[in-house]
Amino acid sequence: MKVLHVEAGMHLYGGALQVVFLLRGLKTAGVECILACPEGSAIAQEAAAHAGVVTMPMKGDADIGLVGRLRALIREEQPDLVHLHSRRGSDIWGAVAGRLEKTPVVLSRRVDNPEPPWLAKLKYRLHDEVICISQGIQQVLLSEGVPPAKVHCVPSAVDTQQYKPGRHDLAWFQQTFSLPDNALTIGMVAQFIQRKGHDTLLAALPHVLAAYPQAHVLLLGQGPLRDGVVQRINASETLRGRVQCPGFRSDLDKVLPCLDIVAHPAFMEGLGVSLLQAAACGVPLVAGRAGGIPEIVQPGLNGELITPGDVAALDKHLQHLLGDAELRARYGGAGRAWVEQHFSIDAMVNGNLSIYRRRLQASSTALTQR
């Protein structure tokens, strides 16, 4: 089996990281893979050990020229199917290229934002199979009229060998982020975009920080709203000096185990890879009841859920966890076990591979019946 993968993301986190896991697992399973990705993208170098890598311009939704570039690559490589992993134009133009070259097309859907039903019905006709990374996303597509037979749920995965509990780097952590020895640290790992819920956390923090003078907060990530958040922090006597925005970190496997709590009060979320990573590191979670997040955060087991935007509930749960080290440890241990049971890389790879085989069998049967 030979598969052409298309990933349009520039950075190696979220969906792009899942693509690397998948390529690695498929290579082990004997599947030949080619990856088409943007010039200068982080995934190009990371994927080279697991797949043939072809870089090309990928300029987003308006880049109709991507159809021609992918058609040429399909003709050259002759894959058995095309797997599209992201939006930014590749979900549409990649599907058109596959259709024109009469190659089966599989799409991975990683976001839970709704689309008008008329658009969904037109768009997903281009794809032979749609893989959702959470049941929440699957339900969105079904509610929009996408045929159930082509919609499948294969959850994203976390590398539990890389992300694991252990505070042996605590001194490094405290020095890196200029934290006192007695600090209790809340982390949030997310792009600075509206739907991630930074505003909710910032609104809850004054009460939390007043109640726990040893509490500090790290807002990790980058994005268009980051500068505004930094300005808001600097303008607040309560937040200034207690809340940091260190930017994107490529060493989350060292950072996350040193956090006491991870907060993620998102309004929309396909699944939440940063939550999987934090749970794998044994960190308790407080997150928004949105998208696929309830498939990770089990209230009373490994964390707590809030209604998106509920500042009072977020305040309450953060204070409760900060004040109870035993509860944090219990939630953390349960979170690690939950991830190992439900979100392994092997299960993700096998789930994708089963859908490939299903589609190729269906295509072969259709050819035979002509």
UniProtKB/TrEMBL annotation:
One of its GO terms (molecular function) is glycosyltransferase activity. It holds the Pfam family Glyco_transf_4. The keyword Protein biosynthesis does not apply. Keywords: Transferase. InterPro entries: Glyco_trans_1 (IPR001296), Glyco_trans_4-like_N (IPR028098), Glycosyltransferase_grp1 (IPR050194). The keyword Transferase applies. Residues 14-161 form the Glycosyltransferase subfamily 4-like N-terminal domain. Residues 179-337 form the Glycosyl transferase family domain. It comes from the Bacteria. This is Glycosyltransferase family 1 protein.
